[in-house]
Structure formats: C-alpha cells, structure tokens
Amino acid sequence: MLTPASSTLETTVRRRIDYKTKPLGALGRLEELALQIALIQQTETPVLTNPHLLVFAGDHGLAAEGVSAYPADITYGMVKNFIAGGAAINVFCRQNGLQLLVCDVGVNGSFEENTESFVKYKIRPGTRNMRYEPAMTTDECEAAIDAGKTLVNGVQYRGCNVIGFGEMGIGNTSPAALLMHRLTGLPLDQCVGRGTGLTDEGLARKLAILQEVATRHADQTEPMAVLTAMGGLEIAAMVGGMLQAAENGMVILVDGFIATAALLVANALNPSVRQHCIFCHQSDETGHKQMLYFLEAKPLLSLDLRLGEGTGCALAYPIVQAAVAMLNDMATMDILT
Ligand SMILES: Cc1cc2ncn([C@H]3O[C@H](COP(=O)(O)O)[C@@H](O)[C@H]3O)c2cc1C
Ligand SMILES: O=C(O)c1cccnc1
Questions:
Q1: Which residue's CA is the nearest one to ligand 1's atom 24?
Q2: Can 247 be counted among the known catalytic residues?
Q3: Which residue segment(s) compose the domain that 328 sits in?
C-alpha cells in the first residue's frame, strides 16, 4: 500500500517532470500519470513489467428475467472465443503487448483443461436469481474474491506490476447498476442503462425488475453484504483482484461500468485501493460518468465504448507506457543551455 511518507518523493518527481524539455505542465495528464505511477512504485524511475489483463467470466441467475438484450449462453460462447483468441480483448491485448488471462469463476458450461491463458476456478455455474434470493452465499462470494486474489498473486509472481481487469457475463450491467445504487446512494434510474443495447421498452422493464431486487435486498448496506446479495461471481473476483493488486503495490487499470462497480466495492472495503487506479476510459453505459465522478476520477479515453472485457484498459495502456517513458527518457532543460 502507498504510505503518506512519499511527500519528498512527490516533490522530487514533480521537479524532474518540470525540468524536462517542454514548457511547464505541457504534457498535461501524462505528467499526473507519471507522478502517480512513481508514487505507487515509490521510485523516481518507475518501470512497467509484464502487463496483464485478467478477464473473469460468470453467469447471472437474474438473466432469466430478460434484463439483457442477449441470451445468457453468449457468456459461454464468448469464453470459447477468448480461448480461441478472437474477441476484441484478444485483439487489443495482442496489439499493445498485454498478456491475457481468462478465468471461469461462474460460467454455466464446462471447458477443457487449463492453459497458459485460461484458468478454471468455477465456484458455481452462475449466481442465483437475485430477484428471489441473494445472488451468492457468503462462502461463494468469499471464494470468488479469493479466486481474484490468487490469480493476481500468480501473475505478480511472474513479474507483472501493472494489471487490468475485465469481465464477461451476460446480464452483469444489472448487478453493477445495483452495486452503484447502493454504494453511492444515487437514484436507481441514474444507475441503470441499456447494457448490450436494450430498447426503450427493455430498459423500462430492466429498471422495474432492478427496483424490485433493490427493495428485496434493502437491508444490505455493508459492502460485503451488498456484493453477496446483488453482485456477481466475476464482479467479486475483480474486487478480490483489485484489493490484492493494491496490497501488492501494483498499478491497476480500471475499465468500464462493470469493472468500476467492482472498484466501488473494493474502495468501500479499503479506500487506499483508489490511489493505485488509472481510469482508462469513460464507458457509454448510463451511470459510468456518475460513478467516475463519485470516485473523483478522470478517465483517459472517451471513445463511446460499451463493451467491457477490459477493452478500455488494453486501449489506454500505450498512454500509460508513454507517461513512464517520458519520466525516464526525456532530456532535461540543461541540454538547451
Ligand atoms: C457478444 C457479446 C460480447 C461481449 N463482451 C462483453 N460484453 C458485455 O456485455 C454484457 C453486459 O451487458 P448486459 O447486462 O446487457 O448483458 C457483459 O457480458 C459484458 O462483458 C458482451 C456482450 C455480448 C452480447
Ligand atoms: O462499460 C462496460 O463495462 C460495459 C457496458 C455495456 C456492456 N457491457 C459492459
């Protein structure tokens, strides 16, 4: 974790950046990014090593209520697509040099054996239908959190110090909206969006169902209890992964609406996680802008993406690399005198 003792380092790094061959402040947000990464790594000369993108996949009992524009079995198909290398996240990770690791924590369907880029950690084949009962038991939720922690420790062991989190789970904009509603206190209609592309009618139906779910679980206000009742297995795994990454002193790349909902939980459990986070993009999903505002976060990109999978992280990673390269490799004003 970051310690407050870094104020002298902060001064030193700020001076270094100011003394580069450019007008003061002219590299804008890159300067803030470089400083943040230096403080996370507690060094004037940070390095990014073995970048990883972890995608957690899980199904949702609530999907049976028709809260998504797509059928639930797309989750299984998409995990096969990740394994075959054909999804958007595969393409962007290959392009930008991130190692992709996909983890099944709760997909309704089985897969062949583990590979270097696919891990089975199934807790159950999808959450329960939260319209009628809590999505998970406490044990299941904790097991999903542990899966996230274990995977992060594994990649750190292999030399990774910068990590993005993505997800796949048809229906998961619903738990994400509910977590946002309960943890930020914002009205539900400001948290619920079209997800994969619901029509006006579909959106109205989703809102009505989520209102019912929120009322059923109105007693849950503590972050772990909220996650257990209205979360998802892949969301809980991201929570665990983010908590562990922060504890390990890693840089965390935050993706869109679902990943930021996981961060809301992680942040509620341990606010020091926030300092490790780079907010990669602002999703087009209703509510993401407000979520970012709640976290006092400025996204790097705004490309009208609404996909998830960690795509925003993989796309923003070259900008993060540029910030570190600037700090390490740019000449100082001495060269001009
Ligand atoms: C083919 C396909 C690929 C995806 N990749 C990510 N998602 C995204 O969409 C889903 C959330 O939206 P909703 O709550 O409306 O179901 C999640 O699986 C998310 O990762 C996808 C969705 C589809 C259909
Ligand atoms: O921003 C996201 O994470 C997102 C938005 C819509 C659908 N799936 C994911």
A1: 70
A2: no
A3: 7-47+324-336
* 137 C-alpha to ligand 2 centroid (Å): 25
pLDDT for 163-192, tens place per residue? 999 999 999 999 999 999 999 999 999 999
Question: pTM for the whole thing?
Answer: 0.98
Residues framing ligand 1 (Cβ under 6 A): 68-70, 74, 78, 167-174, 195-196, 307-309
Q: Are residues 241 and 293 in the same domain?
A: yes
Long-range contacts from 329-332, C-beta under 8 angstroms, 24+ separation: 330/20, 330/21, 330/22, 331/20, 331/21, 332/19, 332/20, 332/21
Tell whether 232 and 329 lie within a shared domain: no
HSE (side-chain half, CA atoms, 13 Å) at 300: 24
* Centre of ligand 2 from the C-alpha of residue 256, in Å: 6
SS3 label, residue 115: strand
CATH at residue 292: 3.40.50.10210
Q: Is residue 270 part of a domain?
A: yes
